[in-house]
TrEMBL record:
EC number: 4.1.1.48
Pfam families given in the database record: IGPS
Domain Indole-3-glycerol phosphate synthase: 2-250
Lyase among keywords: yes
Gene field: trpC
Region (Disordered): 252-272
InterPro entries recorded: Aldolase_TIM, Indole-3-glycerol_P_synth, Indole-3-glycerol_P_synth_dom, RibuloseP-bd_barrel
Protein's name in the database: indole-3-glycerol-phosphate synthase
Domain of life: Bacteria
Organism: Anaeroselena agilis
Length: 272
């Protein structure tokens, strides 16, 4: 499935280069100060809430909300940052970044299958603060080059690994944030045990984020107690009966708080 998705992405990127040349992106890009890594470092736990409508493996995940509506709910629920999926197999669009920027002040991660430097320029042009880089689909040379180009563009990076071999590769780079994806790329099943299995092999010099398979505060609390600094959650939020309540639960890593809660007690209506 991953190979098919990446093949489709290559075709899409080639077409977009013809429609919107790189020089045009560079000319129309507005500089933004880096904000994503700063948001993750601001506390000992951070929720990166993903505006995700569908997945190739499970189809539609939510029909109740649009991407901007999800962004509003996540912002009200205490998320530290937002992830916006921009690839077609996930019903995402590059334009969703601007739509989310219009309703939320939180930093935005462009989540996609980055296989070309052009996509880094696209992300900056669209208004993203950070990009996801997936070690499984990049060579060592590509990973090093993309990290360098992202830095030149003022984009933070979240580098995703699935295995010990990928973790070792990434830890030979200056990548400051590593995401451990709990999804098995052969079966597409998830188990947060994958994060705990790789933690002993991390070098202690990076911010660590756990991705996929995090369903509630109990998972978040275990991860935080193990030294993980945050979680990227999509399906666990959008499929919840009360997305706002689940966002608060994950943003607090399952811990009670005496702090005042946002005024909303129910999810934002669809036309909010």
């Amino acid at each position: 499935m991953l190979a098919r998705i990446v093949a489709g992405i290559r075709q899409e990127v080639a077409a977009r280069k013809q429609t919107r040349p790189l020089a045009e992106l560079q000319r129309d890009t507005t500089p933004r100060p880096p904000a994503f890594a700063k948001a993750l470092r601001a506390a000992d736990w951070a929720l990166i809430a993903e505006c995700k409508l569908a997945s190739p493996a499970k189809g539609t995940l939510t029909a109740r909300h649009t991407v901007p509506e999800l962004a509003r709910i996540y912002t009200a629920g205490g998320a530290a940052a937002l992830s916006v999926h921009t690839s077609a197999p996930f019903r995402g669009r590059l334009e969703d970044i601007a739509a989310v920027r219009a309703v939320s002040p939180l930093p935005i991660l462009r989540k996609d299958f980055i296989i070309d430097e052009y996509q880094l320029h696209e992300a900056r042009w669209a208004g993203a603060d950070a990009v996801l880089l997936i070690a499984a689909i990049l060579t060592d040379a590509e990973l090093a080059r993309f990290l360098a180009v992202a830095g030149e563009l003022g984009l933070d990076t979240l580098v995703e690994v699935h295995s010990r071999e990928e973790l070792d590769r990434v830890q030979r780079t200056p990548a400051p944030i590593i995401g451990i994806n709990n999804r098995d790329l052969t079966t597409f099943t998830t188990d947060i045990a994958a994060t705990f299995a790789l933690l002993p092999h991390t070098d202690g010099r990076r911010l660590l984020v756990s991705e996929s398979g995090i369903t509630g505060g109990h998972d978040a609390r275990r991860l935080k107690q193990a030294g993980v600094r945050g979680a990227l959650v999509g399906e666990g939020l959008v499929t919840a009966p009360d997305i706002l309540a689940r966002t608060r639960e994950l943003a607090l890593a399952g811990e009670p708080t005496d702090a005042p809660q946002p005024r909303h007690t129910k999810e934002e209506p669809n036309n909010a």
